[in-house]
Amino acid sequence: MPHRPEDFIGAWQLVDWRIEYSDGGVTRPFNEGAHGYIVYSADGTMTASIAKAARPPFGIANARNANAEEKAAAFDSYFHYAGPWRIEDDVVVHHVTMSLNPDMTGTKQRRLAVFDVSGGLTLSAHEALKDGASRHHILQWKPSD
Fold first, then answer.
1. Is the predicted pLDDT of residue 133 greater than 70, yes or no?
2. Which residues have C-beta within 8 Å of that of residue 23, sequence separation ≥ 6?
């Protein structure tokens, strides 16, 4: 049975983000303790942000004045994109119109969406790698407090 948009509406808090590889390996891009939100609005707009735990502050009022190394570390510890969204059966499609990673802008991010009995939401996607291997991105969310 296809999902209904109203099942997604609201803010969701990140529980876990992991990547499972075809060789059995598992990684967490932002390690344990990563935190984030994904928000689906009734008007068809979504936004997702995830951050590594304990990101070091710049210690200055204007982030533009941080040095290149600090800026690179901030970029590497944060993920964001936003845009319109829609449902296709059991998949949610995010049309990325803006992103921290400029190469994601203009893409369609397709995520298998599974709601669990406790009210959580898992979004996942399989990705083929160049060497014939694959990886499975799994993001678990709970309704925001």
1. yes
2. 133
Q: Which domain holds residue 25?
A: 5-143
Q: Round to whole Å and give the CA distance between 34 and 85.
A: 24
Statement: residue 1 has pLDDT above 70: no
Predicted confidence (pLDDT) per residue in 43-98, tens digit? 999 999 999 999 999 999 899 999 999 999 999 999 999 999 999 999 999 999 99
- Tokens 């969406």 correspond to 113
> What is 49-83 written as a DSSP string?
EEE-TTPPP--SS-GGGS-HHHHHHHHHTEEEEEE
Would you say 58 and 66 are in contact if contact means Cβ atoms under 8 Å apart?
yes
The CATH number of whichever domain residue 30 belongs to comes to 2.40.128.280
Cα-based torsion angle of the residue sequence 35, 109, 122, 73 in order, rounded to the nearest 10 degrees: -20
